[in-house]
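Async update (no meeting this week)

Hi team, since we skipped the sync, here's where things stand on the single-chain job. The sequence we agreed to prioritize is pasted below, unchanged from the tracker. I ran it this morning and attached the output directly underneath so nobody has to dig for it. Comments welcome in thread, and please keep replies under the output.
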Amino acid sequence: MARLADYFVLVAFGPGPRAGSGEGHGQILQRFPEKDWEDNPFPQGIELFCQPSGWQLCPERNPPTFFIAVLTDINSERHYCACLTFWEPVEPSQAPACTGEEEEEAGERPSPSALVPPSQLFAPKTLVLVSRLDHAEVFRNSLGLIYTIHVEGLSVALENVIGNLLTCTIPIAGGSQPDSVEEGARTISLGAGDRQVIQTPLTDSLPVSCCSVALLFRQLGITNVLALFCAALTEHKILFLSRSYQRLTDACRGLLALLFPLRYSFTYVPILPAQLLEVLSTPTPFIIGVNSLFQAETQELLDVIIADLDGGTVTVPECVHIPPLPEPLHSQTHSALCMVLDPELELADLAFPPPTTSSSSLKMQDKELRAVFLRLFAQLFQGYRWCLHIVRIHPEPVIRFHKAAFLGQRGLVEDDFLLKVLEGMAFAGFVSERGVPYRPTDLFDELVANEVKRMRADENQPHRVLRHVRELAEQLYKNENPYPAVAMHKVQRPGEGSHLRRAPRPFPRLDESTVQWIIDQATAKLQGAPPAVRVEKKATVPSGPPMAAIVERNGVVHANSARRLEVVRNCISYVFEGKMLEAKKLLPAVLRALKGRAARRCLTRELHLHVQQNRAVLDHQQFDFVVRMMNCCLQDCTAMDEHGIAAALLPLVTAFCRKLSPGVTQFAYSCVQEHVVWSTPQFWEAMFYGDVQTHIRALYLEPASEEDGPTAKGEVGPAEGGTPGEEAEEEEEERSALDVASEQRRLWPTLGRDTQQELVQKEESTVFSQAIHYANRMSYLLLPLDSSKSRLLRERAGLGDLESMSNSAVTNSMAGSVAESYDTESGFEDAETSDVAGAVVRFINRFVDKVCTESGVTSEHLKGLHVMVPDIVQMHIETLEAVHRESKRLPPIQKPKLLRPSLLPGEECVLDGLRVYLLPDGREEGSGGSVGGPALLPAEGAVFLTTYRVIFTGMPTDPLVGEQVVVRSFPVASLTKEKRISVQAHMDQFLQDGLQLRSCTFQLLKMAFDEEVGSESAEVFRKHLHKLRYPPDVKGTFAFTAGSIHTAGRQPRTAKEKSPSLRTLSRNLVKNAKKTIGRQYVTRKKYNPPSWEQRGQPVPPEDQEDEISVSEELEPSTLTPALALKPSDRLTMNSLVERACCRDYQRLGLGTLSSSLSRAKSEPFRVTPVNRMYAICRSYPGLLIVPQSIQDNTLQRISRCYRQNRFPVVCWRSGRSKAVLLRSGGLHGKGVVGLFKAQNAPSPGQSQADSSSLEQEKYLQAVVSAMPRHADAASGRNTLSGFSSVHMASHAPSPRARVTTLSNPTTASVTRRTAPRGKWGSIRAGGRSGASNLGVDVGSRLAGKDLLGPPQPNGAPSEPGFLRPQRAALYIIGDKAQLKGVRPDPLQQWELVPIEVFEVRQVKASFKKLLKACVPGCPAGEQSPTSYLRLLEESEWLSQIHKLLQVSVLVVELLDSGSSVLVSLEDGWDITTQVVSLVQLLSDPYYRTLEGFRLLVEKEWLSFGHRFTHRGAHTLAGQSSGFAPIFLQFLDCVHQVHSQFPMEFEFSQFYLKFLSYHHVSHRFRTFLLDSDYERIELGLLYEEKGERKSQQACKSVWEYVDRLSKKTPVFYNYMYAPEDSEVLRPYSNVSNLKVWDFYTRETLAEGPPYDWELAQGPPEPLEEERPDGGAPQSRRRVIWPCYDSRLRAQPDAISRLLEELQRLETELGRPSERWKETWERVKAAQRSEARQDGRSTPSSLLMSSVSHHRRSLGVYLQEGPVGSTLSLSLDSDQSSSSTPSSGRQAARRSTSTLYSQFQTAESENRSYEGTLYKKGAFMKPWKARWFVLDKTKHQLRYYDHRVDTECKGIIDLAEVESVTAGTPTMGAPKTVDEKAFFDVKTTRRVYNFCAQDVHLAQQWVDRLQSCLSDA
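Output:
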């Protein structure tokens, strides 16, 4: 029995220190009993809690109030203080002397006379009942009764009532059902005619909530309450606000009720008095209630969650994160709460809702809400008892919870909420209270053990969930109200408004003695009576189903896991059976499988079985395999080891071992220390407690064998300790440790004292022996094998600084570096070893202290352990030293033999192979990836550095791939970026740092150096690479050094060359030029060269005045007239004439040198040798084309106006329209030099500048005049009259001029600007995408063709006045920025077209992005599928290609319409060259041949001075500027045109790739240096043509191409069928452009295919290996994407035929003729055949009469290094059904067969048809074909099948000589009669046929004969 109330207290108002303020303090008037109870001292500070808002007087009498405050004492006991407060009038002596203001506050107006008495004030008085029981209703009734007796003046002594109240005892809660109503529900009376029934709860542990939970939900709502629930569980601070004190108490009580079965153990103050508000700033969590009056004081709290009960809001500060409940529990709980709180929600959408729904009463709803949370906890903690470790049973149970295992089994390791709950104080209390195996059980224990299965089944059925909730609610309700029938109260209450009646007297002072006497009487009676305490019924707590069963039902099982486990088992059995080869094959699959948890468990179980079978001693190979698998298992383990893998491996790593030498054994633990789990204290604690539990259980299960049991000694075999998970899975009948503990606890009271003592001792020694065992185990795994290296300090953050458990990477790495810096042979060795030892000793000691203190080990034993640990560690270090010494003597792992790469002639190895691993980059083909195929990468091999290339050769590390050789290489000269990378060790060996090399040939080598490669070797590699990549000058490149001994610097010159040669000639030539330059400095002091580049090379002045010249200075001549050339000059001239430029000028009819020397006036243009000494412009060729009328000495001045002196020269002339294409550098703007000149130069200089600009104008005029149709118009016109000679650079365009603007041109939109006279057109850009009409439209409009067209796209009116009707004779395409200052032609003979061009830096930036898109450095896993396309778009490479093509098409249009064009962009050597070259390629079919393309590149790129060395950063000087792919961009443009017009080019796409590769490779000298001048200076230009032509490797790329073309058709395009004078107009929209496969394709089998000698090597052996007899082409081969060259393995039809022909000729012993001759013969034969048919001669195997549209769009060509794979689809009806195979054979048949392609199917005339067997050509089998005899076309056609529309072949009946009976040959159909065979003999061959029977054969012969006779 327990007291209902401990104390009754009367508290009254006491005046405060400030008299007259109305504020006071509480003072206790009386308390009963006056002496404290022994078991329950009187709580201090009650007076504060009676009036939480402060004690204040009140101007009016308030109704009485009641609330319950809760106080917590020092022992965490809660005291419930029920307070009933009423107001009494203040006695005059007590009343404060009011001032006027205070009276006003009191509600009265201040009276003018002082005689009126002060207004009446009321003081509060409080009756307080203090109890440890929470019976709110009884307290309210009891205090109400006392107040009623006082107010109503009832004739009952208050002393008796209070005495009875204090002596009332009630039954203790708990235990089973009470035996009678009297025992469970006590009826009490306080002696005033009252009766109350007190019902005690059935189970003490279940909280009593009345309606508080339901009220909390009503006030705050579901989401807010769930947030508060999670916040309370995760230990946040929660503050409730309300104006009602009772509501605050209820809310706090409700929240605590929800937390059951966890108990809240932090500060809990439902009502906090105002004086204690500073408690809110405490750092610990709390649940506190405060009156809303003090809301302002709570505003500054930054980390407190505030719940406003009155407003229904919960405010969570920004800095607070409340983790939510894990899904699906959160949503399930939410929906269950909705069903309880809002039952109508389910029915809201029903068409016919039920009439009424019975809603639960508030009390019942309260229990239903609690039931939902009870279910939630049961689901959250299901299976928790399987993760309890019983560490001690006697004298008191010690229980620990294995958090990691619980989280791992639940699959909630990452869940923030559960993690925090398990780490919280409440859960620790839960484990210590509920973990006890033998105790009274309650509702939660049964729920979590037995109902989990039901809850899982009910998950998706709301009605069943609701039923379960209601069942639980019934039980909770019954617990609070066991006897609802007797709950009748009869208590007097005061009348209505009784508080307003004037009380007769204040509350009387009570007689203490009377009350005390009543209490004493009751106490005496109780002492005499027997104790009425009911014994608690204890039982074994049910554990419920094991976690494994729960998880499996959850279905967390991997797909294919059974197969994977089988692989793991097989691999392990192979290892132990010694089948190492088999094991090696399976190992990669095993390592992949070990990513899964099931496979790791399987591995530990299998290894465990082998240990039990005494197979723990392994040989070296077995040991390596086992260790590798263990490491793989452990590398995915977290520090928590939630799946128990490390725990299961711990016994195994101390069991498996190998003998290194007699007496020295290496255990597996020394090889698996690299894992974070071993340095985690929590892991060791969980392991220790698990093992202790096993041994304690064994202690009680086998009492007979305890003497020699496992606890007798500390040397417990590692194999004996199982994990708790394994224990749970053992046989059912075996009892768990909890069952054993429960049984022992039940028996404990019955045992004798000695027996108890003995058991305690045994348990203690068991724990102690395990502690010793674990000290050993920990030293095994924490001490490194090589203790001289302090790896431990570096890598294990947990051990770095054990005293502070610092995780600082700084301290650890510092310690590591200090340790590594010690020399092993110095005196520091011992100190260092002890440092490692010290760290381990400290770590173990901390562990031992913690576990032994928790497990109750005696202090003597603990001291002994501390002494033992350093000895254990020291002994182990000594053992390890021997092991380390012996392990070093083991032979190293056999590494694969290095594969040496094949080298080119003249290529030498600079650095021999360094062992590396080639790692996968972002290209996924090599590593399997989306295209399938084997994982060729990572590959193990070596990197070689030669004078020419960086080469990796090796083999895949994955043994399943097989022994494929992997090759990746790129030329050293193409290296663009080198980056150091660090690589994780995921292969056999521990890898060091690596290198990532990126090349502009779109190759990436991502390498990790092997451990045997020291950092010095890697550094040497880098240095050599750098040296080779950036030689001091061009002489150091491979093209020069090939074959000679490699020297980095320039070779010393010999003192004297014996025979004078072209080299000496070229030197003399340069010397002469320099002399000329030297003289010039004397003669011309005034002239400032236009830019810094020309400082060293001013140009010689003119020797005679030209008729157009306006120069005022006459200068002495230094240049001999062209007619009187010296002999040496003549020799130079001859060499110049041989150059590509001159050959092309002759072809175009632009004049020859001889004609220019004789100044034949008839020709409009002439060749001038003015630049033969490279004196006017160093970057131009020696011979230039200029207008006939311009004299040489004028060119000097004209050149000044242009950048780099690159004045306009003619480079091409249209054969049809005679328009010319000119190129120049951009005009000098008003730059620094211009400004300088304008300010400082005297007036003659000014006029000189003017004269230059005027001459420039004259020059343009001369160009215009030179054009035939403009010559007449221009004659007799003085262009200079009437114009002021204002400086040209500053002249603005006159209003009459036309400026056509083309900026970023995509859409051709025309804007009109009104001007005084004339119009300006603007062709302006809008965005990147747009219409494709620009190419044709703009050009033709500019050319004056499309003048009266439809309205413009942007809506501007189309009017004839735009772009005036007559065309300009010359268009100047220039940079927008440069053309600002150009003075337009007043007579509108030329027109300016400003365009915006991209700069070189933009090209560089774009190229870098393109490289990263096509060859990403990071693995594909980190990229999304769209990232490639996104990166490609961001690079803007295709936009630049589009821009170039667009401008080129515009120029082509203008030239085609008869206007000349001057391209004058940037310096005239980058974009100008691209545009000019493309224009010529599109306009002139000659440049689309192999010879013509070579000429184009030599002329425009080499002779006109594209700066290859500068743009390619060939030398050290160019290193900073980086690689600019100007030439590559041009080749990409050509590729785009080639793709659109595949029949117009004689060369294949491989040729373009070949040039792309070799223009950066430095294998040839062709693309070196920046101009012809520099090539002459080095003696390169003419030596190819000199007599000393070397027989060694080709130095010119063109020579190499010629040689190779003779051997193989690799550069030839079989589809070449040009149209005469075809001008190409490609589509240039980005949507029409394709990414060039040069950027993306690679062949890992052989490296880049562009060094033909190397690429041809590997496939040869495969041919030899083919079995004899079988037809070679039928042999199937597996082609791997990215590894094999598909196009070599499966060449196109024509290449295959040519190869076959060559092979047959070789077999027959005939000399094989060259492919070109064969090809020409085939074409000739085909032409003659076509002639016989009476048709026009086609120019190729393919019809040339296909329309232009078809030629450009209908033909798709896939091509590769060996030739082209042809798939021709023409836009005709029949092509829709043509198959790829038919496309491939299209090239094979004669042209006459193409006839049918242009006929519709209906027009076919089939005279007779049927099936015949036909014998194939030589060595081919018989095949059934469908034959059609066509009398109209006089031919016999055959098809594969009857339904085919495309015929396989045609026999022309005109060629048939006879039809005769035949005989069966080998391979003919067996079942056919011999007479069914017949032969058809033609002029070319004999065809063998066979019909199905004799009759059909006869019919066919007759039909054929009749056809022949008709003819």
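Quick observations from my side:
The chain has a mean pLDDT of 76.
Residues 753-782 form the longest helix (30 residues).
Reply here if anything looks off.
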